[in-house]
Amino acid sequence: YDPKLPPYSTGDPTSFAFPTARERWPIIITQAIDDTYRSVASCDNAEKADGGKKIVAELARLKYEVQHDRALTPIPDDGCPDVAGYNKELEQLGPLSWLKAPWLFTECYLFRRINAPFSLSAHWKNYDVFARQKIKTFRSSRPAVLELATRYKDLVTELRANPAHDPEADKLLFTEMCEVCLWGNATDLSLLTSLTYEDIQKLQGSQARLAAEQNILANDLPAAYAHLLAAKQDPAKKGKDRRVDIILDNAGFELYVDLILAGYLLSSGLATTVVLHPKSIPWFVSDVLPADFAALLNALAAPRRFYETASEEETLQGKVPEALTDKEVGELEFLFAEWSRFHAEGMLMLRPNRVWTGPGSFWRLSEEAKEVVEDLRDGELVVFKGDLNYRKLVGDVAWDPTTPFPEAIGPLGAGSGLNVLALRTCKADVVVGLTPGKDEELRQTDGGGGDSGARKWAWNGKWAVVSFSKGS
Ligand code: F6P
Ligand code: MG
């Protein structure tokens, strides 16, 4: 079911897969080793500590295999139903070695392999090896979190005071919320290996967002808004559920902005329910697990405890976190009250499914996960967040960049019954939906790749595409 075009490969020096596999994967595994080791060191159960040491040894072996371009071996059977699918695909792809393999499959396989020793252990089954990094980065996005909390509270208060608002004003708000949600993705932790916290904070502020509007290369937000508005105004749908699904990407700041969008959709009546789809295993470092959702709400429920308690690192450095003002605390608590009410009333739901951590593209969903597609069809719109979800939608193959998005998503495009909106900052090679000549123009910009054959402009999250496909 995959598109019949060559997939990007870790063996291709012009692909972003090449440095990703050689430089970033070893760093990611090293971070996982350090984290596990830290937990082992502070563990007072000898049997658990022993199990932890075995995991560390397994991860070290995995790192060796990646760096020495060894063969990809079958994932050991840890009792989870996805193992067979991974191993079948590995067999079908033929003997593969880490540094000469299809990028999408191999990267998914990497995270599944990282998870296997935990999953096989007695005491570490649900351990999230990336949790420390996620929470730390979320704390460091404090300026943008506070700025958005003010904006959100004002906006919701205004929506309540004037429920009959003008659709043109609503369209502007919808655009703003979606763009907040889009750029929240620019700072995922798998890229963070090369960004400083100051870089992230600069990327997250409202100034940066406005300046970045011209970096959205294809912007279908007007069509997505028109679609949701038509459903809202449709007499046949009066009193019925109008659902928006969000296939989540990263935890922390990005999940926070996803909730801003979800809360806005519910408060404005553009949706009556929002279903969030997190991952089931630690994934691409920073992706959302159900526990991250709970951790975020906990942080908002007690903002002083979250922001004013010094972390281990701050204590070591003698740093005292700055106190929050009463106004800031009030705004964060407002968010907590809103979102936990939506959650308690069943308007905001979490629905994990193993399908999101499978090895392949989403072209296969209609065949391999019929019930998931059926379920998504019940909604008005499915929002796919982030780079990896986009790569999976279009199959991570070398499309001509002017290919229309509905064509590139194959079976999920026209006629599928799914209305798809991708909010993606570009952090890989593949891109579609561009106007003719745009790719060539961007390649000629500073650092854009020039005539090297590499589409470097698309690697760092500076550019974005917002693409809509109507399923009818
Ligand atoms: O760009 C490197 C990378 O690891 C990609 O492989 C992956 O698509 C992306 O980072 C993860 O980004 P996101 O969190 O936006 O899916
Ligand atoms: Mg991610």
TrEMBL record:
One GO term of the biological process aspect: DNA damage response
One Pfam family per UniProt: ARMT1-like_dom
Cofactor: Mn(2+); Ni(2+)
Gene3D superfamilies according to UniProt: 1.20.930.60, Uncharacterised protein PF01937, DUF89, domain 3
Task of the protein: Metal-dependent phosphatase that shows phosphatase activity against several substrates, including fructose-1-phosphate and fructose-6-phosphate. Its preference for fructose-1-phosphate, a strong glycating agent that causes DNA damage rather than a canonical yeast metabolite, suggests a damage-control function in hexose phosphate metabolism.
UniProt note: domains: Subfamily III proteins have a conserved RTxK motif about 40-50 residues from the C-terminus; the threonine may be replaced by serine or cysteine.
Identification of the protein by name: Sugar phosphate phosphatase
Lineage summary: Eukaryota, Fungi, Dikarya, Ascomycota, Pezizomycotina
